[in-house]
Structure prediction request, 200 residues.
Amino acid sequence: MILAHLNKTPQIDASAYVAPTATICGDVRIGAGCRIMFGACIVAEGATIELGTNCIVMENAVIRSTDAHPTKIGAHCLVGPHAHLAGCTLDDCVFIATGVSVFHGARLGYSSEVRVNGVVHLRTELPAHATVPIGWVAVGNPAQIFSPDQHDAIWAIQKPLNFPMYVYGVERPLAGESNMAEITRRRSEALASHANDVIV
Prediction:
């Protein structure tokens, strides 16, 4: 399904293929030779999403942008099934395996690879040719790569990056409190704009 959102219509090169059950919404630019497979969801909510030539987006992958965080995927990249990319940049020739998550402000260098269920955290810079092993976590600038059992080491780098403020514009809550009411209120207001989307 191709949808105009906030008066922006996806621009899809004539040589690209978008599966009939994929969703492309808003200010999305899909380059020549791209293949967007079944169930994939590419949604631009404010800032643009760009896919370079010959990008492959596999089944049920999700690629998003927000007002403050565009997403740019270089040429010859593959985004595996069930991967999730939000507000990030992939240089050319990046491989994203099944179940990977790449968060806002991250940048993945040329020919880097994130293996099955790997995570590249908020504002992380992964250098060219780097590999995040299966299930491991990259965090920081420059990236440090940790096994998932090293939560305290990951959190020591991640906490100052301030995910709630950087992504949602909301302060991290004090101990024993929650910021979820404010986050969900803001997201609800923003996502309400989809009520006016138009099928193209």
In short: Helices lie at 151-158, 163-168, 180-191. The longest strand covers residues 41-44.
